[in-house]
Write a structure and sequence with these properties.
Elements lengths: L1 H11 L3 E3 L10 H11 L3 H19 L5 E2 L4 H4 L2 H17 L3 E8 L3 H12 L2 E3 L2 E3 L6 E4 L5 H14 L2 E7 L6 H4 L2 E2 L2 E2 H14 L9 E5 L4 H10 L5 E3 L23 E5 L1 H4 L15 H20 L3
Parallel strand pairs: 1-2, 1-12, 2-3, 3-6, 6-7, 7-10, 10-11, 11-12
Antiparallel strand pairs: 4-5, 8-9
Helix pairs in contact: 2-3, 3-5, 3-12, 6-7
């Protein structure tokens, strides 16, 4: 699936992933009202509202972007109906030709890790039949259990030609409490980066590995170092926009070919209509505001990459 992701990025010229992380506070009132009229103020009503919100944004932006990244916690908070909305979102985005990165941050060992891998990337056996549960193209994975936790994902990736993004240096302010700790006089995130590169060496696509890394836009100098450590690793870059990352900060996350990284923006796009810059669209045209935010983000990143 890494080959498809690269192809989509080349086609759109926009190394952007839209984070479909819907909070009810982002969903315009008219969408909530319609959902509650049908399902009541219930978990089912909330799930319907976020599904309709997602659908409108995807319908308005899918031709501009290569991928989406739904964050499963935003759906799990609404219980089983929320998970159903997650699955509907995954399936709909794939119908639109988008690569889907399931932001699930799973991690465990042995059979538990294997079950997570099967749930999100693989196939489960039920009697004489097999089923594809959630069916994302990529999943985010916590590598801090070591190879016991990662190997089951690698096995499923090899079988299904899908991929993972391993957490290496995350964008949150407190990430350094653990990830920057020195081990043998080197930051832990560098050692994890080396492990990611090694794991990925056995799972290569045409240009890049099926094993990617998550490196926050908020740490550009660390991104520069990790780019050198992981030359064939695709880097998923959170932290653009709402968390402070700018296009000019991201150039070192990319390789000289202008590939090698894909930049995520979540609320900066899906809740763009709430920003002063896009207020002219209003709540009724929230999806058009999201499209404008995608166009602006793509222009910002393209402008930065001209200086590679």
């Amino acid at each position: 699936m890494i080959n498809q992701l690269v192809a989509n990025i080349k086609k759109t010229g926009a190394p952007i992933v839209v984070g479909l992380d819907p909070m009810l506070g982002y969903v315009p009132q008219h969408i909530q009202k319609r959902a509650y009229e049908e399902y009541g103020e219930t978990l089912e009503g909330a799930a319907e509202a976020i599904w309709q919100f997602n659908k409108a944004i995807v319908d308005t932006t899918y031709d501009l972007i290569p991928a989406v990244k739904p964050q499963i916690a935003m759906y799990e908070q609404f219980g089983i109906p929320g998970l159903a909305a997650f699955k509907k979102t995954v399936d709909y985005c794939k119908e639109k030709g988008l690569v889907v990165i399931g932001d699930v941050k799973r991690g465990d060992i042995g059979s538990t890790s294997g079950a997570y891998a099967v749930a999100h990337l693989g196939r489960v056996q039920v009697g004489n039949k097999t089923y594809v549960p959630f069916d994302e193209d990529f999943a985010t994975v916590n590598p801090y259990f070591g190879s016991d936790g990662v190997d089951p994902f690698l096995k499923v990736c090899k079988e299904e030609k899908k991929g993972i993004f391993l957490l290496v240096k995350t964008s949150n302010p407190s990430s350094g409490e653990i990830q920057d700790r020195l081990v043998d006089k080197r930051p832990l995130y560098e050692l994890i980066g080396e492990m990611v590169a090694a794991w990925g060496g056995d799972l290569m696509g045409e240009e890049y590995s099926y094993v990617g890394a998550v490196v926050g836009a908020t740490y550009p100098e660390m991104g520069k170092t990790l780019r050198k450590i992981m030359p064939k690793t695709y880097i998923l870059v959170p932290g653009y926009g709402a968390q402070g990352g700018k296009g000019k900060d991201l150039v070192h996350f990319f390789n000289e070919d202008g590939l090698g990284a894909i930049v995520n923006s979540s609320r900066g796009i899906i809740a763009a209509y709430k920003q002063e810059k896009y207020a002219k669209y209003g709540e009724a045209a929230f999806a058009e505001a999201s499209r404008a935010a995608v166009e602006d983000m793509a222009a910002d990143i393209r402008g930065a990459l001209e200086h590679i």
